[in-house]
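Notes taken during the Thursday session

The instructor put the following on the board and asked us to keep it in front of us for the whole hour. The protein is VOC family protein. We were told not to look anything up and to reason only from what is written here. First, the residues (166 in total):
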Amino acid sequence: MMHSVQKITPCLWFNGNAEAAARFYTEIFPNSKIGQILRYGEEGREIHGQEPGSVLTVAFELDGQTFTGLNGGPLFQFSEAISFQVNCETQDEVDHYWNLLSEGGPPEAQQCSWLKDKFGVSWQIVPTLMIKLLTDPDPVKAQRVMKAMMGMKKINIDEIKRAYAG
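Then, after some discussion, the predicted structure tokens were revealed:
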């Protein structure tokens, strides 16, 4: 059971693989778990078209943030217009999330800390230091960081630091 209900919970629309996605994500993020799984019944089958007993929704939590995965069918697809930002303190953290979330996702969707996972969900794997350097009051330093970032897929913190230093 989830311990509390947050005011706003993202609901992710999947095409039959909401439970697999939730299990995938909960293996990657610490302090994560699967919650309640609701199943389709016979009622409404003429509308939803799903097999009775198949997963309707799965509640899951990623490091304290609750989500709902919905098996709604192929009608809607994910796009980069919505993404989840993962703030990272170290290169090891960046590497961990990048390597696991990008596995099976399209390489062409990887740019400037962004990636798409194998389920089509977009993520930004962002070193917190990069944000600090991009917002530096010295526009020359900040622009060097921006230029370096724009040439990367997965962010390399050491390269960002070198760009900042000039």
